[in-house]
Design brief:
By secondary structure, the protein is α+β, with helices and mostly antiparallel strands. It has a single domain, classed as XisI-like (TATA-Binding Protein, 2-Layer Sandwich), CATH 3.30.310.110. Helix content is 21%, strand content 26%. A 3-stranded mixed sheet has the order 1-2-3, covered by helices on one side. The longest helix has 7 residues. The radius of gyration is 10 Å and the shape is globular. It starts with a strand and ends in an 8-residue tail after the last helix.
Length: 53
Protein backbone atom coordinates (compact mmCIF):
# COMPACT_ATOMS: atom_id res chain seq x y z
CA UNK A 1 0.00 0.00 0.00
CA UNK A 2 1.05 3.55 -0.64
CA UNK A 3 -0.65 6.61 0.86
CA UNK A 4 0.08 10.31 0.59
CA UNK A 5 -1.36 13.21 2.56
CA UNK A 6 -2.01 16.16 0.23
CA UNK A 7 -4.09 19.22 1.05
CA UNK A 8 -5.47 17.52 4.19
CA UNK A 9 -6.74 14.53 2.20
CA UNK A 10 -5.58 10.90 2.28
CA UNK A 11 -4.56 9.82 -1.22
CA UNK A 12 -4.59 6.06 -1.80
CA UNK A 13 -1.86 5.79 -4.42
CA UNK A 14 -1.49 2.02 -4.61
CA UNK A 15 -3.16 -0.96 -3.00
CA UNK A 16 -1.71 -4.36 -3.83
CA UNK A 17 -4.06 -6.19 -1.47
CA UNK A 18 -7.61 -7.47 -1.73
CA UNK A 19 -8.66 -5.15 1.11
CA UNK A 20 -10.90 -2.16 0.42
CA UNK A 21 -8.67 0.38 2.12
CA UNK A 22 -11.07 3.27 1.53
CA UNK A 23 -13.87 1.48 3.36
CA UNK A 24 -11.51 0.60 6.20
CA UNK A 25 -10.57 4.28 6.55
CA UNK A 26 -14.27 5.22 6.60
CA UNK A 27 -14.89 2.59 9.30
CA UNK A 28 -12.14 4.28 11.36
CA UNK A 29 -13.92 7.62 11.11
CA UNK A 30 -12.35 9.26 8.05
CA UNK A 31 -14.93 11.10 5.94
CA UNK A 32 -15.25 9.95 2.31
CA UNK A 33 -14.66 13.52 1.12
CA UNK A 34 -11.21 13.33 2.77
CA UNK A 35 -10.14 10.25 0.77
CA UNK A 36 -8.90 10.32 -2.83
CA UNK A 37 -8.37 7.16 -4.86
CA UNK A 38 -5.21 8.47 -6.48
CA UNK A 39 -4.52 5.45 -8.65
CA UNK A 40 -7.64 6.28 -10.69
CA UNK A 41 -7.31 9.02 -13.30
CA UNK A 42 -9.21 12.24 -12.48
CA UNK A 43 -11.98 11.55 -15.00
CA UNK A 44 -12.83 8.27 -13.22
CA UNK A 45 -12.61 9.67 -9.66
CA UNK A 46 -15.82 11.64 -10.18
CA UNK A 47 -17.71 8.33 -10.34
CA UNK A 48 -16.42 7.06 -6.98
CA UNK A 49 -17.93 7.82 -3.60
CA UNK A 50 -14.69 9.54 -2.61
CA UNK A 51 -13.13 12.95 -3.27
CA UNK A 52 -11.88 13.90 -6.73
CA UNK A 53 -8.74 15.61 -5.53
Amino acid sequence: MHFDIKNSKIWIQWNGTEEDVGEQLVAMGVAKQDIVVGFHPPYIRQYTDYAVG
